[in-house]
Amino acid sequence: MGDPATAVNPSDMIAAEPNALLPILLEFCMICITVTPTSRTLVKADLLNAARHGDIIELCLDHFVNEPDVKDLITAVDKPMIVSCRRPQDGGKWKGTEQERLLLLRQAIVAGPAYIELDLDIADQIPRFGKTQRVISFTRLDRPETDIDGVFDAAANAKADIVKFAWPTPTLDAAWPLLAAVSQKRTLPVVGLGLGQAEITFSLLGMKYGSPWIYAALEQGMEAYPGQATVFDLKDIYHSDGITPKTAFVAVAGFGESQTVTTKVLNAGFQHLGGNVRCLPIELGDLRQLKKMLDVLKIRAIIVQGAHGQSLLELAEHVDKHDRQSGYLNLLLKRDDGWHGYNTLWRSSLKAVEAELQPIGKTLATQNVMVIGNGGMAQSMVHAITQRQGLVSVCGPDDKRAQHTAQVNNCRFVPFQNLYETLSDIVILADPQISSGTRHGQINPSLFRPNMTVLDVSNLPIENSLMQEARDRGSKVISSANIYMDQLNGQFKAVTGKDLPESAYVAGLAE
């Protein structure tokens, strides 16, 4: 097949045209900041703030409570402005009639903004006027579009100057056709907007692979779509100012608070070394296609925080026997002979526990250790303790899964209802789903006792609220931050060959 942008299957796209995503050497990718004001009184302050941080401003008229004076607003700042007014079916907030919306758009184009955004199906009802360029937009909220060429041709026939595509990008698979759409050489420029939390994946890739601009919200609470990153996220977390066609990406699997902290720390470390490397957050999607997409994007490392480590086992061709037995990976590196998988979590955790026991003359072989959780992290920690002949038990809200982990590791299984009757010297929380409470599947803080040692590896470096409960009851708590720093340093060194500087931790862990 000729054009990867029309493909439904990412595998087909990659196999058919592996050079489809070669960087287009633009001077830079602009940032378009969306402003979604409801008040005519405060809107100018928002526009001035957006002008300080972005290259283009999108003024979303559909959020206003009362009709604004567009002419007055577009002359308030010296940055080019896109005027839009989206319907609910396109993700907007417009509450009036369609005739009223069309009238507002006609009035807006007469005001002379740099750009006017028009939905493809109504573009022929808004004639070209003056020097205003027409951004013909196609949005769908259910899934990626498959007929990109057909939509592009229709937009071109509607006298587009720029074509815009927007659809959900929850995984790398879903972002792929959108990235292909903006990266291909066409007769008209194409911009894209991923919808949802994972839109940041498309935005960062778009900056490298030729998008004329990407979108960002001015601040939290002013997103054009739920989950949209702010311009401060782009600059402070992802260091977007330095992304160029030559930027190399290191993938960070998953989205969440722990992944954001990891991204901040690693990006600060990359910046300290002076290299043009950035973290790219990705939701994995179909692992069968992931290897091919990573190859096209030239991504040679994946950092894992959280529960994805178990599923990534099948991605790695080469894994140390102990790491494979642990059932969990948190680092994958692409080498000449394929993907190599590693588990730095169990080693860092083991080091921290033994450092706690050594001053009092104890070893894991003399301790009753309870690992609480279901999934890859719990199995990883059970494996770690068995390496030191620890007396390990495993317990989780799902008894069947916990029993399977016990069987695989030849250790004791404790039904969840018997957790509080079991003697434990050390308790390890190893499941991000664990929470404090009295309902089934939750942990009652009465579990913790004085002189018990407790550590939490479930969502490093974010600490479970149960850890404070353990402190309040006199338990010895091992710092989650120390375990996190040790394992992340190992990951960083494996990727770069250098130690992660302490300043990177400070930058990443700062509020």
TrEMBL record:
SUPFAM superfamilies xrefs: Aldolase (SSF51569), Aminoacid dehydrogenase-like, N-terminal domain (SSF53223), NAD(P)-binding Rossmann-fold domains (SSF51735)
Key words, A-Z: Oxidoreductase
GO CC annotation terms, alphabetical: cytosol
One MF annotation (Gene Ontology) recorded for this entry: 3-dehydroquinate dehydratase activity
Any Pfam family matching the protein: DHquinase_I
GO terms under biological process: chorismate biosynthetic process; shikimate metabolic process
Gene3D superfamilies in the cross-refs: Aldolase class I, Leucine Dehydrogenase, chain A, domain 1, NAD(P)-binding Rossmann-like Domain
Protein's name in the database: 3-dehydroquinate dehydratase
